Amino acid sequence: MCKSKMSTKASEPVSTRPTRPTQSPRSRRTQQTHHDPNFSLPSTSTSGNYTLPSTTDSYTKASSSSASVSSRTSLSSLRQTISENPHIYSFSEIRSATNNFLLKKYSSSSNHCWRCNLRGRDVMIFQRKFRRKPESYNLRERLSVICRSHHNSIIKLLGASISDDYIYLVYEFINGANLSDCLRNSRNPDYTVLSTWMSRMQIATDLAHGLDYIHNNTGLNLNLVHNHIKSSSIVVTETSLNAKICHFGTAQLCGETDDDDNERNRKVSSFKRQSEITEIVEENDEQQPIPSSLMRSSSKKMQFEGVRGYMSPEFQATGIPTQKSDVYGLGVVMLELISGEEPLKYKFDKSLGEFVRTSVIDAARSALDGGEEGGGGGGERRLRKWVDRRMKDSFPVDVAVKLTRVAMGCVDEDPDKRPDMERVSRKISQLYLESKTWVDSMKIPTDISFSLGPR
Questions:
Q1: Whole-number Å distance between alpha carbons of 212 and 420
Q2: pLDDT at residue 92 tops 90
Q3: For the chain, which domains are there?
Q4: Tens digits of residue pLDDT in 197-241
Q5: Which Gene3D superfamilies does the entry link to (predicted)?
Q6: Measured between alpha carbons, how far is 282 from 308 in angstroms, rounded to an integer?
C-alpha cells in the first residue's frame, strides 16, 4: 500500500483556527466538491451508544495542505488524499438509500445486503450485528485503517454507519458473480465460465495475493484476520475473470476477532480439549440442506457464526478466527477450484439407510494417495478423474498435483503445520508461471505456413 505524507497527515485530527486560511480558487472548488455538506455523524438518537468524533478537521487540513502545494497538485495525488478519509454515513442516509430497507435484497443467500446508490456511488450495503461493541475511538481508528487499504484483489470498504447493535458496512459495487455460482450453476451444471485451467489459476493467484496482503502487507502493523473466506464471498469480475475478496474489515469492525493476542493464542493452543460447540451457519446457499438428524443442537456451550466445510478444527472448538483459520478456508476454496465440487455435502446411502457426509478434502486426499500409490498411469487417471471434467482434461497434471498438495497443506488439522500466506502466495505464483508455460507450449505455432498446392 502506497501512503503519501499528505495522506498520512490528513487522517490525523488537529485543531484549526477560527479564521479560514487563504486558498486559491482551484483548491476552494476542490474542497467544496469533496466535502459533502451532508457528511454528518450519527447522533446519539440514531446510532445507539455511539457518537463518533467528527472528521471535519481532517478534511480541513487536507484542503489546507492541498492549497499550499496547489501548483504541484495532480489528479492522482488528489484521489489518494480523498481515499484516505472514510465516510461516516448517517443512519438516515442508509435508510434513504435502501428505501427504509424495503429495497429488494441483492442476493437470495443474504437477508441483509442491498445494492443501492449512496452519495452518487453504486455501492453494496451489508447489515451486521456486533459480536462485541468496541469503544467509539477504537471503532473510528479501525475504520480509518481499513479504508486506507488498497489492493486489486480486495473490494474496498468505503465507510460505515451505526444504529443500536448493528453496523452497516458500505463497500464499492463490483460487477460480477460469486465464485460458488461460477463453479456450480444450478440451471446448467455442465457449464462454467471458468472452463480453462488458466482461468482457475488466475483466480487462485488473485486470492492468494489478496489474502497475503490482508495478513502481511497492509503496512498498518496490525494482525488482520478476514474470517469470511469462502467461495460465496469471492466475486469473479465479469469481463476479466479476476477474483476480488469481499467483506474485508468485517471481522475487525464487528468485534469478531480477539484483540488480546496472548488470550487468542492460549485458546487456540488448547482447542483439542474442547469438544462442545454449536454452529450457526451464516450462508448455506451453495450447499445441500443438512438433515436434521445430523445437526448438533443439544450443545449450548458456545455459539458463533461459520459455514460448514470452511471452518478449521480450532475455530470450531474456540470460535476465535486467526490467520491460520483464514489459510484453512483458502485451502478449501482452492480444492473447489480444482474439482468444481462443493466443500461439504450429504448424500443418502440406500445400502446403509442413512446420510453419508462427503467432503472435498477427503476426495482430494484420496486422489493424491491414489496418485502416489498407483505410480504412473493408474494414479494419473485417478487424479484426472477428480479434477473438474468441464475443463475437458486440458491441464498440466504435474501442476494440478502441486496445487492440490499446496491446498492440502493449507487444510492441515494442526494450525501450526499450515503455511503462512506469504509462502502460499509465492508458491501459487510459481505454479501460475508453470501453467502459463504449459499453455504456451500447447499452442499451435503461428509462424508456420501451409500450402496445399502442388510443388
A1: 8
A2: yes
A3: 35-54+79-173 (3.30.200.20), 243-287+296-440 (1.10.510)
A4: 999 999 999 999 999 999 998 876 777 999 999 999 999 998 899
A5: Phosphorylase Kinase, domain 1, Transferase(Phosphotransferase) domain 1
A6: 9
Question: Would you state the cell numbers that stand for residue 180, as one nine-digit string?
Answer: 460458488
Give me 98's grid cell.
435502501
CA distance from start to end of the chain? 63
pLDDT band at 340 (very low <50, low <70, confident <90, very high): very high
Q: Which residue has the cell 493424491?
A: 368
- Average pLDDT on 43-62 reads 44
Q: Which of 216, 214, 217 is nearest to 248 (CA)?
A: 214
Q: 400: pLDDT confidence band, cut at 50, 70 and 90?
A: very high
Q: In angstroms, rounded to a whole number, what is the distance separating the alpha carbons of residues 201 and 433?
A: 10
Q: Which of 234, 227, 232 is nearest to 252 (CA)?
A: 227
The residues that bridge with 243 in the sheet, in sequence order, are 236
Indicate the length of the chain as a whole number.
455
Range in 83-92, 323-332, 360-369 with the lowest mean pLDDT: 83-92
Closest to 285 measured CA to CA, from 386, 184, 375, 381 = 184
User: What burial class does residue 227 get, using C-beta atoms within 10 Å of its C-beta: 0-12 exposed, 13-18 middle, 19+ buried?
Assistant: buried
Q: What is the pLDDT of residue 81?
A: 42
Task: Provide the grid cell at 101.
Answer: 430497507
Q: How far is CA 423 from CA 72, 135, 154, 178, 402, in A?
A: 41, 35, 19, 26, 14
- pTM, two decimals, is 0.73
**pLDDT value at position 382?**
86
